[in-house]
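Posting here for the record, re: flavin-adenine dinucleotide.
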Amino acid sequence: MEGLGDEINCCERKSFQVFFANVRCANQQDRNIASFFRLVKTLAYFESAKGANTDAEQNELRLLFEVPITMMGFGYLRDTATPYVLKFMTLGTFVPMMLYPMPVIGWFFRWPRRFVDGYERLWEDVAKGLNVLLDVDITRIGRPGDRACTDDSISINFLHPGQAMFKTDEHDATLYFDYLVLACPLENEVLRRFIEVRDDERALFDMIETFAYCMTTFNVDRDLEHSVNCVFPFDETRIGKPWAVVQMFPGQSRVVQFYARAPRDEMVTDAEMQDVVRASVKLAYQMGHEIAGWKSNGDPDPDRRAEYHTFDCWPYFQHVSSNDFGKFYAGLEALQGQNRTYYVGGATNFELIEPILEYAKALVDENFPRVS
Ligand SMILES: Cc1cc2nc3c(=O)[nH]c(=O)nc-3n(C[C@H](O)[C@H](O)[C@H](O)COP(=O)(O)OP(=O)(O)OC[C@H]3O[C@@H](n4cnc5c(N)ncnc54)[C@H](O)[C@@H]3O)c2cc1C
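Prediction output follows.
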């Protein structure tokens, strides 16, 4: 991290050393006795529920939560409703996160956990033996009571590809169901394309907000010194610039991910997205790395062949404000099952796979109990 000037100043945050050691795969120096005692102290704050007393303690505790929450796209701590933060930082996540860099003890705590064959393979395996239709584009869902719906069943119109010799055509089909479980973002922008959103649904879903979160990937010239790097401070000054640089598979692949929050959360322009890409390139150069096809000022380099690069910008983290929190989740529960429609997915619990699955499983167990 030396030589990066003000851009990367995480090392200056001494109080944060323990957690920082974790996220950047601690070296031997970080694994010393002093950091172990700081770790125990921080755990004690967390467990005591009394909170921290001194400014230093508060700072340490704040940073401890800021890395997973703010850096991973779940907003500033001052804005994010506390239940969301605690959904992410359960004790089951917190303890391995803190203990995995420790000598000996760390062998018993693995973090972060990854699917060795990739996440998609997991779902392919889950889908085996189930009647899952892939590659379909749902064009319309009709529900009883809709203006355009004439019968009492739920109809789903969709397009699916079919090959006719040398060309692939889209085929139209309709299936009929007793119940609908919507497993997609509950944003009007998504829903209005295929379903007649009712007034009570619209009133509820209008409370949902998202952040525009960007991931830019490049092939860098050599492995990063540390596989996970944070860029402080996580505040407005770094909006549009990466605050995390991650190499997922050091030694195997030099693809590096740069995570940044876009300059605004809706209607991000092409120029703003291009600026995020340029900021990522500049940061890579500041970290002492080169990216083929890109200059250190963030401009494409026409003299060199550009290497692998992706850019995606998601409406990320469906959530509601602290003020709307009670109203939204009570309203959602009241809405479940109305018009034979149920809702699962990121907005129903917290925008991570495990909470989403927990909620979906509980909903199915309660409303569609297994008939033996
Ligand atoms: C960059 C990134 C990294 C993440 N990392 C993690 C992580 O490490 N761990 C973790 O737990 N979570 C992670 N998440 C969060 C996690 O991916 C989401 O919370 C989760 O996928 C949301 O699930 P969902 O079912 O609500 O919606 P989605 O996964 O968005 O699924 C909705 C599906 O509906 C489909 N759809 C929408 N409209 C139509 C239509 N008309 N016809 C047909 N299909 C349609 C979409 O194509 C999509 O496949 C990450 C998210 C992002 C963006």
